Every structure is written in C-alpha cells, then in structure tokens.
Amino acid sequence: MKQIVKKVIAILMVVFIPLSLIACGNNNQQYTRTDFMMDTVIQVTAYGRNAKKAVDESMEKLKEIDNIMSSQKSGSDVEKINENAGKKYVKVNPETFYVIKTALKYGEISGGNFDITIAPLINLWGIGTNHAHVPTESQIKDAMKYINYKDVLLDEKNDEVKLSRKGMAIDLGGIAKGYAADEIENIMKKNGIKHALINLGGSSVYMYGSKPDGSNWNIGIQDPFGDKGKYFAIVSGKDMLIDTSGNYERYFIQNGKRYHHILNPFTGYPAESGVVSTTIVSTNIKSIDADALSTITFILGVDKGMKLIESMPGVDAIFVTPDYKVYATSGLKGKLKITDSRFKLYENR
Fold first, then answer.
1. 161 with 81: CB under 8 angstroms?
2. Which of 17, 75, 120, 215 has the most CB within a 10 Å radius?
3. Mean pLDDT along residues 130-150
4. CB atoms < 10 A from the CB of 250, how many?
C-alpha cells in the first residue's frame, strides 16, 4: 500500500493541476479519482456539472477493459486466446478485437518491431515480477520461435482470434492503456465535459480540452534518470496526448547491467537503440496509436524513430539519450521547455 501511495504522490508531482481551480463554481466543479488498475496508478480529473458522473463511468470502463484485455486476469479474452493457441478460434469482445487488429497494423508499420506475440519472451524474462532473471541463450532462442504477429489470425465477421501455433501467446500491455484513454475521452464527450486530465500511470497522459480558465495544461516529461515524478522538461497544450516509454519503468539490475521491460522481438533482449526514453506528443492521433508508437520509437532509436514520426502529420516525438541529449521532431520547435540544465535540446538531427 505504501508503494501505491508513493506512486500516486509521484504522479501528482508530474501533472500540474492549479490548486486555485479546486474550489471553483459549479460549471467548473472539479472531481478526481485515483485507483490502481492495469498494473499502474490511474488518475482521472474532470471539471463541470457532470464531472463526478464522467469520472466514475471512466473508472468502471477502465476496470472493464482491464478484465478483458489483461493477460493476467482469469477469464480474460487474452487468456482464452492464449490457452487455445494452435487449437481454435476464440470469440472475443469487439473492443479486444479492435485493439488486436490495431496492434497488428503497427506490427506491419514497424516492420515487426512492435509485436504482441512477444508474450513468451515477456514471461521468460519476468521483468517487473519477483522472478525476473536473465534467461539462457537457448531459452531465448526457444521463446523467439513463437514470435510472429503474422501468425495471429482474425475472423473479422465474427470477432474471433486464433494463434496459429501451440505455444504462442499475446500480450496487449503495449497498447491497451492507449485504447483505455480513448474510451475515457468518449465518456467525457458523452457527459458534456469540456476540461479533463486523464493520467494513466504517468506514461500515458491525455489533456482533454483546455484548463477551465482556457489556458494550456502543463505536463512534465519524466526524467529517465530520476525518481518517478521528477521531470526534466514541460510540454504545454490542449487536446493533446503524451505517451512515454522508458527503460526506467520496469527493470532489474544484474552484475551492474540494467535489464528493462521493452524487449526487442528480433534479439530477444531488452532493446538497446541508444535511447533511455521516447515520448510521443500529438493532437492528431488517438491514444491507442501513441501508445504503440512510443514503444516502436524506443526500439528504433533516434534516427529511424525520427524518420518514422516525421512522416506522420500532426505527430511529434522526444528522444532522450544516455548522455542527456534531447532530440525533438520539427513540430515541437518552441513548444518544449527544458527545465533541468543537465539536459540539452537538439531540435534538428
């Protein structure tokens, strides 16, 4: 419990909610809920007459998504798909089908660097669990035999999914939170909310509308070398999403080497592309897209990652390297404020 409280405090440090807005008029009434779901601390804040209704509905939706898309929840769609690998198609919730279909699209876009069939490798490494360890080379090679997103078969007419070979498994951890943020956005719209801040673990943040006074939200970008909640830069905006992947989120250290949770499906080891974190910033795509892109850019590194993002209108990215260099795509020129002098911004690569 103490650990959860520490995480909550850390996230509150990253997201700047002006205290002067807490006790405002009925039209701007603030309501906030914080909970632990989807393996992280979730915080949703809304303003307006229907704020409480919208936030409560959002939390229920998050619980629903977690229950059907988690690989760790008994009876989830993902568990059923994995249990029937190589056997038969499994009927899934249309939402799960949509997320899997979107994930496969990003498998294609990334040339296989984003691959939801990486679950056997995730389970082998166990990073973020109490059995995290460095597997043997033969164990890694064996797990990699089951990784290929092209072996995920979809029956679009019936919302059914099948993994073509026994031993395969999928994990939606790299994309489900983004989908959840999109669903919360829909709930806010349905309830007439104009201003909200959706914070899914600090790594996925959606600034819905503007602050109640019409000004921009200010979001701190996590310092990849610091404690959770410490930031090195600020991005300001409205109707903007921010999604970050970093090697500091889940990891273990063995013999002085850090092993983090973002695994490269082509090597079987934690990705080593010369970056410690990547952040997607956009007003033009859905959160589900940003969630996938933050993982992809981390694996691709600065040069290939920037080339990919620059090809996407309305999408920007921030890359941080181990020597405190910060590279930002062209759309962020003048919008990213470095607040920690150890970091140096390069706006052109």
1. yes
2. 120
3. 96
4. 15
